[in-house]
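quick one before i forget lol
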Amino acid sequence: MKKKATFFSVAVLCWSLALFAAAQTTYPNEVKALEKIRKSLGDPFGKLNNWNRGDPCNSNWTGVICYENASADGYLHVLQLELLNMNLTGSLAPEIGQLQNLTILDFMWNKITGTIPKEIGNITTLKLLLLNGNDISGSLPEEIGYLSNLNRLQIDENNISGPLPKSIANLTALKHLHMNNNSIGGEIPKELSRLPKLVHILLDNNNLTGELPSDISQIPNLRIVQLDNNPFTGSQIPRSYTNISKLYKLSLRNCGLLGSIPDFGSIPSLMVLDLSHNNLSGEIPSSSLSTNITTIDLSYNNLSGSIPRSFAALPQLQRLSLNNNKLSGAVPDGIGSNVIFGPNTTLLLDFQNNNLTNVNASTIVTSPNITMWLGGNPVCSQNTIRASFCGTQNRTEDTDRNTMNSVSACSPNGSTAPYYEYIQEADSFCVAPFEVGMRLKSPSFSRFPAYFKRFKVYMTSGLNLSLYQFAIINYIWEPGPRLAMNLKFFPPKIPGVYTFNDSEIQRIRQLFAEWKIHDDDFFGPHEWLNITLKGPYERLNPESDGGSGLSKGALAGVLVGVILVTAVISSIVVVIVLKKRMKHNNTASRKKLLEARKRVKVSDVRDFNFDEMALATNDFSTSMQIGQGGYGKVYKGIFADGTIVAIKRAQEGSLQGEKEFSTEIELLSRVHHLNLVSLVGYCDDEGEQMLVYEYMANGTLREHLSASSKKPLNFVQRLRIALGAARGILYLHNEANPPIFHRDIKASNILLDHKFNARVADFGLSKLAPLPDLEGSAPGHVSTVVKGTPGYLDPEYFLTHKLTDKSDVYSFGVVLLELLTGMHPIQHGKNIVREVKMAYESGMMLSMIDQRMGSYPSESLEPFAKLALSCCNDETDARPSMAEVVHKLDKILQFTPGLDTTFMQPGKMDALAEKGPYIVEMTSQNPYVSSDIPGSELVSGTIPDITPR
């Protein structure tokens, strides 16, 4: 019986190999490469249909493959390969370099992993390289510099790491450099200045360091420079930037910048100047800025002096944010008086938290289009000041509201036909529209309603449509800031015609996908996200029968092939398993152990070997041990170059914590914030698992709250630590992409650096928040097994297993109570939340205060205690959001009497903890943003991922 089975297996294998070899001899060279590419993308049996038909331009409704007949060699040459939004997995095969006539390579919005193969440099004809919205990792190959015809290099929203290759300087045709939202490190190469056609540099949300490159001012056509959220710590803004004559937008938010603000008054086209969340000092230049400017954001710096009178002469201004500085004097007379207010035009003046002492509000009072916020200034103590200027602010005052065009459903000729509606500007025409998702990646405005008409003209002219054929369904601001929207397109008004023909839909799709819509610097670069084909267009979807490029015969052939290959693989597996069972009875269990401990490959952080760890810790000497927890022991490590690190070593001989180990590497390698601990690297070698962090000289918060602490923290230190930790958690909730629920916030997971700045640590139990779709609908919780630390656990999460952002708020509330009392969460059978709540309600709160922190102002202690208890409310909805916690702690700290302001570093507020106007604009609240925050703009309420991902 065994011999017959073996013979059958061998026969099937030989037959399959013969068929495969015969098929290979019939394929042209580039089609062979396509087959390799298709299989590497997880499509071995033809989900990507019609690869080999040889049509001049074979299109379906998600992908386009264009060929060219080359009579000289008799082969087909691939000209375009567009496979966006198809849920493809796998990696890019090196054979992609054999498509040496390719002009468009578009794999946007898939789930492709791996690295960019160096062979891509062989495609010297390439004009569009579009890989954004995947999970590609590794560094950019130097060979990318061979693509001398490249117009658009778009690799944003991946996991790219390493430095930018200097060979980019060879891309002399490049206009668009979009690499935002990766983990690219090192300095920006000065060689970028050699790119004569470059118009957009989008490198925000990376790990770029060093000085801001002054040489980019030599790029003659540069329009947008967006470098937000990179740690250029200590850099100054080069004065040469004032010579970028065609600049529309300069965004350097949260870049650790020092020094003064250069005078940008000489740039005539400047529309957006965002220098917020830095450590800039000195006075604001008094010269007049461009009359085209819409947005000035200088908030959260150390700026002093008065507000320049020149700000009163800006006719297009939409937002002026100078909050959280040290500005003094009066608000200039007539500010906002020169703004040209049209329909939907407004102006926000945010001057909160300065030292302003006077305001002439006549202009503001008489204009309903102007909103001014003055809270936190001495002027608000005057009885003559209008209450609305100084009172609790409603953040919706500063929000572009979602635009919903009413739908008037209809049926052509009175028949029942869903998905039909009247053209909004011609009610007598009943047609079937379709929808397109798109995003403006760096617009030059803060509020959208004022530019609806201009955008409508821009889109319809670019698509060669009539104005009545276009409508904006809804839109929403995202981090960046970026503006995502859903658009609707109506068929032309032709009697008896109710739908678009197929070729017209494909034409519009291609204009979006290939960036053939002309550029408009005002709206900035755009990107196509998706197309929604419903009702009469549903047959065009790739998963429907009408969209399939496979005939029944071809489908049958594919099924036969699947069966044959499955039979071959099954036979081989059976033979191998039987042999291994007979010869190596114990090998299987050992392999299981090794497989469970297989090396984690993360390109964003350094991979250490065991010998390096042993050397750094003096062979894990007890003298180097600085801590111990459930995961294992923590050692101080010193590398050969003198770098000091903390090494967390898992319990030896156990796989406990395997998932936590991988989770922490994955999350920490892509979240970056001043108040989150940084992961230096990891070791997964010789059966050991270790995590390597930056060294925190002052240990954990819990150590400093214990009775054995030799230097107890004073009240101001505790406030600062609370605020820093809160900012780190807020970043996880609102700005990480996707958002993160920490799930184990506690005092021992809050580390303190040499200046006692707080860093949130230990992401082993963290969970990603559920992602909302484009319409903002998603569950506000993650259903998961209960994990965490007793005493810190959210009671609602414990009972329902529903983890939310408010679960972290509860845990953080317990930490605040620890800071107040010095108690442990559970001590001698007593629960800190219950004990403090009883004392507070009975008027005995002072008896609970930790006497070791010395003197404290009662006017600061009261709101601190009240905030802590509100975080620990049993009811989830009654707890504040993390954004409100940050806001209130910031207020308490600022108004604490006798506070050493130089110790506070007020300009260090991270930009990702405050987004100004860039907040959710959908009708429904973003499900993972907890609540509206009075008087605060700290919630961006953003959706970190659009449907394509």
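fyi The first helix runs from residue 2 to 24.
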